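Dear colleagues,

As part of the handover before I leave the project, I'm documenting each prediction I ran so the next person doesn't have to rerun anything. This entry is a single chain, and its sequence is reproduced below.
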Amino acid sequence: RLVMTRSGSPGAAGGQGGPAPAPLPLRALSLDVELRPFDFASKEGQRVGQQLGLRLQAGKPVGQATGGDGWPLRLTIDTGQTYLHPLFFDFGQMPLQVQARMRELPGHWVLDGLQIDQPGLLRIRGRAALGRGVGSGCGAELSLLPTAIEPLASQYLKPFLLQWQLLGDTPPTTPAENWQDAPSGRLAAELSYRCDTGMALQLGLRGVDLSLSGRALRIQGLDGVVGFSELAREVDTDLRWREVDFGGVTSASARLRARSRTGVFELSAPLRLPVLGGALRLDGLRVVRPRVSAAPAADVPPTLAATAEIEPISLEALSDRLDLLPLRGSISGRIPSLELRGEELRVGSGVEIALFGGRVRVTDLSVTRLLSPPAFVGASLELDGLALGQLTEALSFGAMSGRLSGYVRDLRLVGGQPVAFDAYLHTPEGDDSRHRISQRAVDDLASLGGGVAGLSSIVLNLFSDFAYDRVGLGCRLRRGVCQMRGIEPAPQGFYILRGSGLPSINVIGYNAEVDWQSLLQRLARIRARPEVDAGTGKRPESSSGPAPDRRPEAPVPAIDEGR
């Protein structure tokens, strides 16, 4: 129904045969449109509506003069369903009502008193403006009134998280009420938008708990404000949280203070994240949202650049949380350059780590699918002068003294498991430290192949340790197979350890190719084996004469007497 009323009397101007009367000024307009049921669909199926009940009301009743307070508008959708990829709405369950007053100003239209309501879900208040010509601009100032975050996130956030694979194994059809670890707490927001320069957004959070990527990231007790601005106007961030858990590693409470303007978000104070008895301290953090001409680049992810310091973190706790080999000691170092683009993390210039009395340099470190397991990790490591005593103790390996250097190049991990690398660890040239190896360590090196050949265990039992000259072992992992090598060739194999002095022993490996999983199982048995058998008081596998003279399918290091 459309009713128009114009000022004056129709036909008052102009007579028969005279000029047509000039249009009379519009005095009042009333529009009432109701569509029930209303269906629509796009060709690609990304926008679909069925059985919609829609009513649009605009203008003033006939007979009321147009005042300076504008024309009232009201839109109500209270039945039917619609899908606007990736969002789904059931308006029978959550009716939508939009109302405002429209005023005409020179060059643009203004919507004052804008209200957007979905009962139990959201309440938005504000104003908007739209230019009346191409390129004449637009803008909005909107406020989301404080609301419970769980229903709002289930309706408006969850579909995007599922699309971006940030909810782990949660099926897309999971109802909102069955969403595992749905966020909780309260949320408010302020948005300033300019269609030619971007937006400024500030969120207010109170008691918010959330998790992403199947609990790979969990944050508890979020309180404060966080903001980002593409406009010249600066917005501040002051956010605290009680606990953050990332991949099983938990960080205690911390505070983030930052500022943002013209598409840049950067720290205004260092951020210290307590973790495992130490901390990760971000001295510099800068996030930039790329823009293409005047419009945000939706297909170009933001970039994050940071510098950081690792305060000593417990290796024992870290390896336990990440289900790695049990380690003891601590890890520390400086990260001079870190860059995150989308789900890809890269660390430039190398990371220096003080470890086991020596140093480890990590280069070419990258992580892809950071929040979408399984993550892919790439890196190379250079080891310099690690203390073998500390290392073998941490690995529950037989005791050795001396130093160890080497490399792990082109390391590739998928879901935390190695799938490729080229590694070689050896005694460094010119190492003048004391070189001793215990009976247990000799046994452990030899048992990598499943048997001991050569020097009898009776002779071994006469000595608690032995001198050695050099040790070295390498593995190139490809397609589940390790290509093994040692410090130098030996008859029918390669030397893993060369003895020194009397008695002198050599440990020899015979198999050049080894199944990786078999090697891991043997290493696991070494770590699980006790130093002394509780029943006999002797070392396991060393109490009854010579070992079998055989070469199993797995790598067989052998021990022979030095000459």
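The chain is about 10% helix and 55% strand. Residues 430-561 form one domain.

All the best with the project,
I.
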